[in-house]
C-alpha cells in the first residue's frame, strides 16, 4: 500500500523560501511519477511540479523559482520553493502513480498548508 506524507508547510514572508518534503512508502516502481499539486482557497487543484525518471516538469507560474527532487534511497521527494509570492499560498499535495502518469495520479497525501504573507 502506497502512503505519502507531506511536511514542511508554514508561514513565510513574500520573497522568502521554504522546502516541502514528501515521505513515501510502498512505492515499488523506480519509474513511478511523483508530483506536487496545490489548491488555493476557492480554486481547483493544479499541477505545480513533477518528476519521472530523470525528467522534471514545472507549471509556468513556478518555473525558475521552484525545484523538485527525489531521493529514492531516503524515500523522499522535495519541493524547494524560492522567491515566494502571496499567490503561492495554498495547500500543497504530494502525489504518486506507478504507471508514470501525471494525469490522473493514483496516490495522494493529505496536504500541507503554505501561507505567504507579510
List the helices and strands and how they pair.
Blueprint: E1 3-7, E2 10-12, E3 18-25, E4 33-39, E5 46-52, E6 55-58, E7 66-71, E8 76-81, E9 90-97, E10 107-108, E11 112-116
Parallel strand pairs: 2-11
Antiparallel strand pairs: 1-3, 3-8, 4-5, 4-9, 5-6, 7-8, 9-10, 9-11
What does this structure look like?
- It is a single chain.
- This protein has 118 residues and is an all-beta fold.
- The protein contains no helices and eleven strands.
- It has strands spanning 3-7, 10-12, 18-25, 33-39, 46-52, 55-58, 66-71, 76-81, 90-97, 107-108, 112-116.
- Strands 2, 4, 5, 6, 9, 10 and 11 form a seven-stranded mixed β-sheet that branches. Strands 1-3-8-7 form a four-stranded antiparallel β-sheet, with no helix packed on it.
- The chain is globular, with a radius of gyration of 13 Å.
- The relative contact order is 0.33.
- The mean pLDDT is 96.
Give the ordered list of helices and strands.
Answer: EEEEEEEEEEE
Classify the helix fraction into a percent range. under 10%
Radius of gyration: 13 Å
**Distance between the ends:** 40 Å
- Strand count, sense and closure of the main sheet? 7 strands, mixed
Total strands: 11
Query: What structural class results from the helix and strand content?
Result: mainly beta
Mean pLDDT rating: 96
Strand residues, percent = over 45%
Q: List the total number of helices.
A: 0
3D shape: globular
Q: How would you classify the quaternary structure? A: single chain
- Uncertain runs are none
